[in-house]
Amino acid sequence: MENIVEEVFKNTRMGIYSLDKMLDVTHNQKLAMELQDQKKRLEEINKEAFSMLDYDAVKRNDINLFEKGMVSGGIAIKTLSDNTDNKIASMLIEGNNMGLNSLQKHINALKDENKEVPRIADRLMGEYVHSIDTLRCYL
Fold first, then answer.
1. Which pLDDT score is estimated for 33?
2. Which fold is adopted by the domain 2-138?
3. Smaller CB count within 10 Å for the chain: N or C?
4. pLDDT confidence bin for 64, thresholds 50/70/90
5. Are 49 and 120 in contact (CB under 8 A)?
């Protein structure tokens, strides 16, 4: 079970960091509020995952400087010439889908082993779906 909780921790950390960077280039106040709300929900899930892990697991699964650089650079390049609501929503939907797919692989592995999926994983899956649905109106 710890493996999937580590995945939840890492995914939420990446999501929080990415949302912070996207907020820097978001000019639409309504969209910015949506991103702030999503960030808050991810922070709650991250806090719960953090409490379920030991120090070594947290350290091992926190996002590193290279990953932060890739996110920051990717956002800067992709929004340099187009930082419309449509572009921002598309990028965020893509990121949510990446997290959703990554987490789904872990859930499938647990189910294949007839193991119970922790509530926190289902909660994050629901958050991804909710965020994608919310962002679609900006496309």
1. 97
2. Ferritin (1.20.1260)
3. C
4. confident
5. yes
